Description:
- The radius of gyration is 24 Å and the shape is globular.
- By secondary structure, it is α/β, with parallel strands linked by helices.
- Among the domains are: 90-232, Rossmann fold (3-Layer(aba) Sandwich); 509-631, 2-Layer Sandwich (GMP Synthetase, Chain A, domain 3).
- Helices cover 32% and strands 24% of the residues.
- Strand 30 (540-549), helix 16 and strand 31 (580-583) form a beta-alpha-beta unit.
Amino acid sequence: MASRYHEIYDGWKRDPEKFWADAAGAIDWYSPWNRVFDATAGVYGRWFTGATCNTCYNALDRHVAGGRADQIALIYDSAITGTVKKFTYAELKREVVALTSVLKNRGVGKGDRVIIYMPMVAEAAIAMLACARIGAVHSVVFGGFASHELATRIDDAKPKLIISASCGLEPGRVVAYKPLLDKAIEMSRHKPDACLILQRDQLRCDLKDHFDIDYADAVARERAAGANVDCVPVLATDPLYIIYTSGTTGQPKGIVRDNGGHMVALKWTMENEFGVKPGEVFWAASDVGWVVGHSYIVYGPLLHGCTSILFEGKPIGTPDAGTYWRVIAEHGVVALFTAPTAFRAIKGQDPKGEFVPKYDLSKFRTLFLAGERADPETIKWAEQKLNVPVVDHWWQTETGSPMTINPAGLGLLPVKYGSPGVPMPGYDIRVLDDAGHEVPRGTLGNVVVKLPLPPGCLPTLWNADARFRQAYLDEFPGFYKTADAGMIDEDGYLYVMARTDDIINVAGHRLSTGAMEEVLAAHPDVAECAVVGIADAMKGQIPLGFVVLNAGVARDGAAIEKEVVALVRERIGPVAAFKTVVTIKRLPKTRSGKILRGTMQKIADKEAWMMPATIDDPAILDEITAALTERGIGV
């Protein structure tokens, strides 16, 4: 069919307020808005001001009342434990209500924060919905993060309660969460009132008297007592959650998501962008700790009345490279959303795609890839083996849903390899030079979005309006800075080429090299350091550390490098994939003292580079090249 994209996008451009008011008709509201968009509210304006609503009501209660009570809402599929558990909308609501009652009895109410530090279990989604039910603000912290990272988030969000589990499961190993959690609370200045702990059979933990609460016991008691907690009306502009993304200073940024605009945007994307209908099975193979898990494991599919899959496992090794096809076949998945890393891993293990024909994929229609740049070779491999459209798309934690995509629901446009598609309604994307002037089509520059941002995007950072302005709005007045570099072609397709700051993308996880440098610098023998992201065939990017040792250090350099790697793993977590440190005599700098990280990265990646005009001593780059060559990097 011919795509309706241009007609829909032009309609949004002509009358943005009418467009979003129409989209808001798909959501149930307690009371209507005073204004669709109030340009005088908040930092750059707020959506649906004055309206009241509840996200949990729209995700669960209205479906139970409206005929979906017996439809499966959530499928928990653990390839690691070999278990599958299904919840109908009515059953999921019952679980959420019981947990909500536990929270309420512990004094958690509207506006209070709750940190959720959980593995990929159904209870993680239930915890998010329970918070939403009473207007508490949840902040999910990825279960693989180390104590220091968790502590910074505890201090920023100041949670009343933390919901966690005894352990997380990785292929071949069990990760004990409780010691990490206890250490984080010990390190943090803010102390929560209590912790709710889900005991998992793979590794149970000791609970502290008068502080730790057994999740299963507490919920079972409320369920047995027939607890009932109604949804609490909140303002559309009230926060639903905080999600932390790496900040360039190492201090994480608390992205705020509101209730009203978030629901309107996600509900619209499910059918129009992902081409999925209510009642169908949608699978986002991500983690609830990341924005994809928030938007497309929990909220988007449930708001739309879909069946959502929450998967605990990996694309390979649990048990093999056919796991994804098993899940698709077993549960009748129509669309899968995952990171290109997953497909590079599958392709690496099964280059000929021999696992694919072993499964019935007849219901499977579309593969969506995002989280990092999807290389054309991976896309072509997936197209050939699966024989379905493969849709690359681009967005950020800050936006909550795609900025650009090839919209399956509106009718696919021609595919351009290397491009994550065209701008979606709400996004007037421009490319500017460093001085803020628009550049001609096909020219590389700073990718920005004309303000206001659409519903569902961050209105600000948690308790940090000034930091929000400084990080995103000040550099290009009137625009939101994505901190990505790219270009737009003659047909309006966007090409995203690179990050413009120090955030690197490791297997779809955005991590700050600045935060890693802080850890390196903490080692007693390290005088100076730099971390750059270098290309990696599997993960997209991995960090590479450079250290200059203090004068007079006589210890074995290799031993120090090992200690530094261990330090990053301890403080940032294994998710950083930090494995290589190279000791050098000195760092290349400009005369004003800025470290030339970009040039170091180019040398390590064997890219063409020019001698920076401002370099203090050109000979240093020869020293770095020699040090990398000795380690087999960039040769």
